Q: What sequence folds into this?
């Protein structure tokens, strides 16, 4: 990838006696769409606010192009923010909201008008200059907020759960548009969300956070297919998580059977956890399978059925397009590459 | 269901106002007497320089007091909104406590502070800041101090209620977009709290035109305000029609002022008052 733009080094943050960040190390690159993903209270918003300059870290460094900036006030940073619920200035119209930053910099009026027009075009709000921002729909306000930030040509755009207040359909559309805008302007986007689908759809890099710590950094595909621990596996998508033992490289044991897998590099007989994604499991005839059980419940979900299969030790969740009747004895099958082996989590 | 309300308003609000209006066109007779012959002499009399000066003086005092109340009350209300929940309660209590004591008594308190052998002079001479006691009481500044003292809470509360409702993320947004603290205040906080400030101004300016007892007590009757003039005409002057005319003019002026502020805030709501 291209150059490192922001480096977070051993970042911690305490509010009163509560530690909300416990040593964040993260490199963010130019032109990257990076998402901080985690449940509320995981520290993702605090991390974003430290990058923006609204909070100072309790310890650690924030480097921007190699220069320490953690004491720099927000207005001196080449970073702009799209706030949760937009925070548009209600006393200004659409054009004046967007022009706010440029007016502060005393940019020439005609240049401002030009830039505002170009921004409105980019976010699909041509002709909205004189509108009252308080009368716009949520999606429109969102676009104005994005335009207001981007018109300043920042090197980094921070987005704090920007789609949280929108309804599902507009949210989907805005996800697509945000990605398009990011590619168009070619700058770094740092996006905070608790919505895993949003993170997987838009990001180049997903940073999964919990409890003030980074759990995993990786591409959406890595995060989904190779979760590093139970938290990530649980948070991203639905999973069957089973405790087991890594017998040796490429061989794992759980539920009393040994299975081939594609993972290596663990200690011999190390205690691990295995993720089996519901969509990777197939229902087959009991004699063709190593795991057998009884169908407990079948729910139609549109594209697929969600089937709960009760084995001797646990209940597996299976997503498949084939129907299976409750009460039937079935077998479960999966391929070696569907077995994702994770380090066992200590304290969680 | 609304009928009793209308009746009440008619009898106790509209009635006296109409009576006052009629009275202002009547002729005064000696000993509180009123003769119901129509005249505009009462209004003509207001145009005499002595009375015009009284109006001008009242305006000047109201303006000075309001300005000072703005500068003291705005920061008070603003910072109060940033306090913790507990801090807010305490500040509110401190603000409301004086209202439990009659305002006349509180003004006499100021006499104790400001008089020649009073508290303030004692402190000043003890500190050696002044050789002999200053003449503080019965002066223009003393009246202004009294005005500020009485009117400050109204400004603080209306600014507070405006600042309390403010979305502080807007300030962050302004800072994010390149504004320093001062610029963020001027471009976002001030416009956002303007309704509170404006209603505070109205709540200060209009009463300060009429708070004659402050001028009487702390100004020692040296400075005559419209309020004092009306009171004097009602009592010693025993000229009710003229007092009524003065009151009508006052009312017209304050109504115009309200209209003006409505225009300034472009029909927007004012904190606390319509």
A:
């Amino acid at each position: 990838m291209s150059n490192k733009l922001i480096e977070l080094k051993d970042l911690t943050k305490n509010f009163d006696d509560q530690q909300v960040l416990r040593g964040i190390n993260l490199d963010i690159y130019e032109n990257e769409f990076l998402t901080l993903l985690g449940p509320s209270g995981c520290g993702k918003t605090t991390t974003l606010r430290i990058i923006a300059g609204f909070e100072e870290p309790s310890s650690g460094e924030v480097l921007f192009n190699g220069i320490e900036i953690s004491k720099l006030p927000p207005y001196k940073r080449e970073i702009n923010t799209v706030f949760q619920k937009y925070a548009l200035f209600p006393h200004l119209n659409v054009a004046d909201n967007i022009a706010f930053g440029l007016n502060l910099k005393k940019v020439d009026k005609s240049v401002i008008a030009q830039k505002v027009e170009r921004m409105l075009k980019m976010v699909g709000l041509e002709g909205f200059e004189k509108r009252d921002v308080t009368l716009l729909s949520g999606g429109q306000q969102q676009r104005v907020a994005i335009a207001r930030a981007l018109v300043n040509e920042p090197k980094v755009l921070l987005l704090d759960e920007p789609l949280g207040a929108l309804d599902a359909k507009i949210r989907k559309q805005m996800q697509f548009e945000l990605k398009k805008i990011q590619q168009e302007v070619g700058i770094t986007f740092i996006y905070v969300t608790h919505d895993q689908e949003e993170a997987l759809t838009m990001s180049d890099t997903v940073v999964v956070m919990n409890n003030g710590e980074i759990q995993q950094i990786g591409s959406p595909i890595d995060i989904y297919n190779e979760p590093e621990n139970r938290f990530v596996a649980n948070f991203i998508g639905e999973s069957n998580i089973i405790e087991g033992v890594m017998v040796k490289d490429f061989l794992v044991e759980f539920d009393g059977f040994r299975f081939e897998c594609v993972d290596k590099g663990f200690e011999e007989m190390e205690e691990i956890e295995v993720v089996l994604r519901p969509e990777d499991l197939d229902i087959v005839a009991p004699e063709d399978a190593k795991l057998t059980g009884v169908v407990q419940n079948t729910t139609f979900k549109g594209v697929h059925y969600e089937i709960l299969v009760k084995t001797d030790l646990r209940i597996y969740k299976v997503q498949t397009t084939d129907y299976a009747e409750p009460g039937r004895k079935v077998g479960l099958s999966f391929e070696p590459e569907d077995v994702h082996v994770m380090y066992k989590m200590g304290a969680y | 269901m609304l009928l009793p309300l209308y009746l009440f308003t008619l009898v106790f609000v509209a009635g006296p106002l109409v009576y006052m209006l009629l009275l202002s066109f009547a002729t005064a007779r000696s000993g509180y007497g009123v003769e119901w012959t129509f005249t505009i002499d009462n209004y003509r009399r207001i145009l005499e320089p002595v009375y015009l000066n009284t109006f001008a003086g009242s305006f000047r005092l109201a303006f000075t007091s309001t300005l000072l109340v703005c500068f003291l009350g705005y920061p008070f209300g603003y910072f109060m909104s940033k306090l913790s929940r507990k801090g807010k309660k305490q500040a509110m209590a401190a603000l409301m406590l004086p209202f439990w004591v009659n305002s006349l008594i509180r003004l006499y308190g100021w006499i104790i502070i400001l008089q020649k052998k009073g508290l303030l002079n004692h402190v000043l001479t003890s500190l050696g800041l002044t050789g002999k006691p200053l003449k503080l009481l019965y002066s223009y500044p003393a009246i202004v101090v009294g005005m500020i003292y009485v009117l400050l809470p109204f400004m603080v509360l209306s600014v507070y209620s405006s600042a309390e409702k403010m979305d502080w993320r807007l300030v962050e947004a302004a800072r994010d977009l390149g504004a320093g603290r001062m610029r963020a205040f001027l471009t976002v906080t001030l416009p956002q709290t303007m309704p509170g400030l404006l209603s505070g101004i109205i709540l200060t300016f209009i009463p300060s035109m009429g708070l004659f007892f402050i001028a009487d007590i702390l100004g020692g009757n040296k400075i005559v305000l419209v309020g004092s003039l009306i009171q004097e005409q009602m009592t010693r002057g025993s000229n009710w029609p003229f007092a009524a005319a003065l009151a009508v003019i006052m009312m017209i002026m304050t109504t115009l002022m309200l209209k003006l502020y409505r225009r300034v805030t472009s029909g927007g709501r004012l904190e606390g008052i319509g």
Summary: Residues 65-264 of chain B form a domain with the MetI-like fold fold (CATH 1.10.3720.10). Residues 49-81 of chain B form the longest helix (33 residues).
